């Protein structure tokens, strides 16, 4: 976490600058995740196999997709609980701007110059920056692959959501979970694919015609301790595109209140 250190060059160098460099590494990692996600979507949706066949044949790739979603939701939950990051990064940007006027330079500027700082600022300004990156990547994948039916992508996402929901709500599967981390992993993956589905499907995940059982997914989340799922419920409330559409039933809206 970044912290404010006002006009103390030594602490700027020894305290703030290494943390700015760490934020840069996470930003650059988000770019690698974007490329990785698009490659995974291509592998999991390409003909001639159906989504379930892909997930069965390419289990290692499906697991990697799930790992990316798990990390994404984990990172964004931490980011949302540390609002000082944006304030302190803004302080860093003001400092390097002031230093340019005074012909001075911080050590961190070798890694995070003004141009990079501007890109990072846009990234961290998002409430859920990693999830926003993946949503954009999925949308771009669909728009650039016009010969690939959109259903191939949405069916892959809805199938993963269904698998996670069944694992979470079926006693014979839940009894195999050895710890709460496995439960949380499944919940994060389920929420992640729902959000991606909602971003690329024409009518979204909440419509009656959706292939995702949103009522069942929300109910299984709300059965868990509130402290472990509130961030996931907020992700559904605030990072989806179609929740407030007319096609969303009042019952689903009520479940997310």
Describe this structure in words.
It contains twelve helices and no strands. By secondary structure, the chain is mainly alpha-helical. It has one domain (9-255).
Characteristics of this structure?
single chain; 257 residues; mainly alpha; 12 helices; 0% strand
Topology:
Elements: H1 9-45, H2 51-57, H3 59-80, H4 84-101, H5 114-125, H6 129-144, H7 150-169, H8 171-174, H9 180-200, H10 214-222, H11 226-238, H12 250-255
Helix pairs in contact: 1-3, 1-6, 2-7, 3-6, 3-9, 4-5, 6-9, 7-9, 9-11
Q: How many domains, in number, for the residues?
A: 1
- Shape, principal axes of CA atoms: globular
Percent in strands: under 5%
Class derived from helix and strand content? mainly alpha
The main pleated sheet reads as: none
How many DSSP-defined strands? 0
User: SSE order, as H and E?
Assistant: HHHHHHHHHHHH
Mean pLDDT, all residues: 85
Q: What is the helix tally?
A: 12
Q: Detail the poorly predicted runs.
A: 1-11
For the terminal residues, how far apart are their CA atoms? 31 Å
Q: How large is the radius of gyration? A: 21 Å
Short overview:
With 257 residues, the protein is mostly helical.
């Amino acid at each position: 976490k970044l912290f404010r250190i006002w006009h103390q060059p030594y602490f700027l160098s020894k305290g703030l600058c290494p943390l700015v460099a760490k934020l840069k590494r996470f930003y650059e990692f988000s770019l690698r995740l974007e490329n990785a996600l698009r490659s995974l979507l291509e592998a999991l949706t390409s003909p001639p196999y159906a989504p379930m066949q892909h997930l069965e044949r390419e289990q290692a790739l499906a697991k990697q997709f799930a790992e990316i979603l798990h990390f994404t939701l984990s990172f964004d939950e931490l980011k949302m609980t540390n609002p000082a990051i944006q304030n302190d990064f803004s302080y860093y940007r003001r400092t390097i701007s002031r230093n340019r006027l005074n012909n001075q330079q911080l050590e961190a500027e070798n890694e995070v110059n003004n141009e990079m700082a501007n890109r990072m600022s846009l990234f961290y300004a998002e409430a859920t920056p990693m999830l926003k990156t993946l949503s954009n990547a999925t949308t771009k994948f669909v728009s650039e692959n016009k010969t690939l039916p959109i259903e191939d992508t949405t069916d892959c996402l809805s199938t993963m959501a269904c698998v996670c929901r069944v694992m979470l709500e079926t006693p014979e599967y839940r009894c195999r979970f050895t710890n709460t981390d496995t439960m949380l992993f499944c919940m994060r993956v389920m929420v992640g694919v729902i959000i991606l589905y909602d971003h690329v499907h024409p009518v979204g995940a909440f419509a009656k015609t959706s292939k995702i059982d949103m009522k069942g997914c929300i109910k299984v989340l709300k059965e868990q301790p509130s402290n472990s799922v509130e961030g996931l419920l907020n992700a559904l409330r605030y990072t989806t595109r179609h929740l407030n559409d007319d096609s969303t039933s009042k019952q689903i809206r009520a479940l997310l209140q």
